Amino acid sequence: MSTAAVKNFPIVSGSSAADSRPAGEPGGGRKERTPLSVVQSAPRKRRAPFVVLCFAMLAAALIAVLVLNISVSTAQYQLVELRAKQSSLTKGNQDLTQQVQNFEAPQNLAAKATELGMVASTVKGQIDLSTLSVTGKATPAVKGAAAGAVIPSPAVAGQLIVPPAATDAGANKSATAADRSATAADAGKAAADAASANDAAKAAAAAQAAAAAAAVPAPELHGGSIPVPKQKVPGQ
Amino acid sequence: MAETTGKAGKSKAPNATKRLRLGLGIMLTLLLVVGGKLFLVQGLDVGGMAEAALNSRMTSAILPAERGSILDSRGTVLANSVIRYNIVVDQRVNTKTDSYKRLEPQADGHDKLVDVTRDQAISELASALGMDTNAVRDAVTGAKPYYIVAKEVKPDVEDRISKLQVPGIVAEGVSKRVYPNGAVAGGVVGFLQDGTTGQAGIEQTQDDQLKGKDGKRLFEIGADGLRIPVGLDELTPPQNGKNVKLTLNSDLQYFAQQAIQSQADKLSAEWGVIIVMDAKTGNLLALADTNAPDPNNPGLVAAKDRGVRSVTAAYEPGSVEKMMTAAAVIDEGLASPLDHFTIPPTYTVDGQTFSDAFTHGTEERTLAGIIGYSMNTGTVMAGQRLSKEQRYDWLKKFGIGEAPDIGLPATASGILTPPDQWDGRQQYTVLFGQGVSQSTLQTVRAYQSIANNGVMLQPRLIDSYISPDGTEEKVPAQPSRQVVSENTAQQVQDILESAVTEGEIKDAGIDGYRVGAKTGTSESPCDDGKSGYCGYTASIVGMAPMDDPRFIVEVVLQRPKGSIYGITNGPVFRSVMSQTLRTYNVQPSTGEPARLPQYAK
């Protein structure tokens, strides 16, 4: 039945159909025909929401994967940034540690102490904490004989070289060696470091070492450029 | 549906069906083509495209292992590795780029694209490196794909250079070995050749432990230079080298080096050596040499100075060997410290005549006096009570001819010839340390057995290995052996103490502590192939405190100039031993010092 035809028939719902019968009528001989009414067509299966749901799920899945990939890639960029930061901090730490180690080197400490006018003490006394007895005769340190040999400063490139205090003839041999070591280390590395470093003391040490280099005697080359190998004859 | 009528319907329907079938057929064919191509490309990969793509993405990088550090007993760093950079240029790229653009941060916070000419870039690079502009220009101009402009540049300089973004300039990370303490313990620590392999000292013998193992990383990298996170990533982590912890005390090492250098300079000696050992454990606290190399620049000292003479130089020990003769006769029960000896001015036995360093008449001496005054005559008189085999066996027991194993290269074993090869004179001269040769470490080891109640402990230089995760594995002590009985050791200790209190070595005494010592003066065989003796080796070895000896110090000086009888190492011994006792807070000695009479009644 076409929908247009529905107009022609009054719609009577089932319950009203029953009420249309006069209530008082007893049984009635004639069986009444069930009044016809338009069968409401069953609700058509609405496919639209399902399709929309499918598309929505698909879109959501794609978006989720995209977001995940983006976040992982962003995290990768962050990781690279953090690694670079860690690397620069490690290098800074190494540099500072090296400076500390340079100051802690025994020869540098001794040279600095000599610069400050300190002398080694030779006499000591002891206090026994359990009996509070004092043994030994501790006297104030006095400036004794010449300090003796000076062990040269560590020739670590780019670190402050504390010039050793040369005091007497005995110490001069080691002092020259120290200056030479400073010069050699500096000549090779000062080129790379002196201009770039902002430590004025380094430049001062380099200048001092360069001045001392002039005092180092030139090697005896016997008129050639490479010294002749000396053969040893037993008994000579 | 009502049944269709007529032919018209029949012809219409098959056409529709036919069209449908045709369309379906075409689509199926296309689907088949696509599916087949998909199978070919994805499944069989004809043309190897997946592999080619993988190859262009895949990169392998070597993860270098960090070389382990060398530490002293208190953790002071003696050697470690730091990051440096080589500035490398691809000359072709740089030469052909006359100008380039780079982003420069402006004052207002934004970055501006700035044109930079090649000349400006070169001058900026030169000022950052501290090099001459022309030198830099020469370095970056040419046709080489790889040329080093500057070596071992510090990280802050490298950072500034990378900001310049000079075309063709690349910074290569390298590892540099630095030695913060320089010449202090320089010979013991050693140095590297080409920055990778150890060439001397601990760097050489412990190279395997220090080196570690390089790792490898296999990963996929995109065109923007960033690692593809979801791609292949195989990582074999590098195993960093282990740290080596030594028994040395670097402050004491410096003190000893400075002391021996002063003494050697003062007396114009060829070389000198000081060893400080802990008698209770065998740990070597100082191995001091003159002219020690600075591993940062080892070429500054002569090649012969780059080793550790404390362990490599073997020489005739001289009178310090008399302690072993005395210990042998006492342990064999052939003599005791107060035994009476009548000693003539010169002593002749088996046609061999022996005399002393000082002239004397006939003297009545005890064994203690013979040792206390270092008398060759008396030593031969007492020592001849031992048979030749016994003399040999006792020297062997004290470790002569047996190289100590402490992990330094070229450790000397000394020369102890078998007794059947001894000639008429040598069989007696070995009693006072001539005709046998040993290193300073061997002498100290022999004295350590006396200091340690007769038990000889092998010397230790390497204390432990510390792996990168921090676990420390101590090197186990080598087996010890009882050389003399405890009683003998005590008697010999008394003899050595009496040499200081009553004997000749009074200048070795230290206020507040009981000290035992023995001097040694030996004739030194000529070095350069000549026969006979040239010069002397002056030494002194002692231990303190004698109530329970803890430390042994030996000072050796080779060929000092001047009269050998006027030279004494006593003050050097005294200063090093005092410094050691002070460093380790040793209590002043209690009890009465041994004063064995030097002359017999």
List the helices and strands and how they pair.
The complex is a heterodimer of chains A (236) and B (601).
Chain A: H1 3-6, H2 14-20, H3 47-104, H4 106-115, E1 126-128, E2 133-135, H5 169-193, H6 200-213
Helix pairs in contact in A: 5-6
Chain B: H1 6-44, H2 49-57, E1 58-63, E2 70-71, E3 77-89, H3 91-96, E4 99-105, E5 111-117, H4 118-129, H5 133-140, E6 147-153, H6 155-164, E7 169-178, H7 186-189, E8 192-193, E9 197-198, H8 201-205, H9 207-211, E10 215-220, E11 233-236, E12 243-246, H10 250-266, E13 271-278, E14 284-289, H11 309-312, E15 314-315, H12 322-331, E16 340-343, E17 346-349, E18 352-355, E19 363-366, H13 367-372, H14 376-383, H15 388-397, H16 426-429, E20 438-439, H17 440-451, E21 455-456, E22 462-466, E23 472-474, E24 481-482, H18 486-501, E25 516-525, E26 533-544, E27 551-558, H19 570-583
Parallel strand pairs in B: 2-12
Antiparallel strand pairs in B: 1-10, 2-3, 3-6, 3-7, 4-5, 8-9, 10-11, 12-22, 13-14, 13-27, 15-20, 16-19, 17-18, 21-24, 22-23, 25-26, 26-27
Helix pairs in contact in B: 4-5, 4-6, 10-19, 12-18
List low-confidence stretches of chain A.
165-216
Number of strands of chain B: 27
Radius of gyration of chain B: 39 Å
Helical stretch tally of chain A: 6
C-alpha Rg of chain A (nearest Å): 52 Å
The fraction of residues in strands of chain B falls at 15-25%
| Beta content of chain A | under 5%
As for the CATH topology of the domain at 250-295 and 302-583 in chain B, it is Beta-lactamase
Q: Which of globular, elongated, flat, extended, rod-shaped describes the shape of chain B?
A: elongated
Q: Indicate the structural class of chain A.
A: mainly alpha
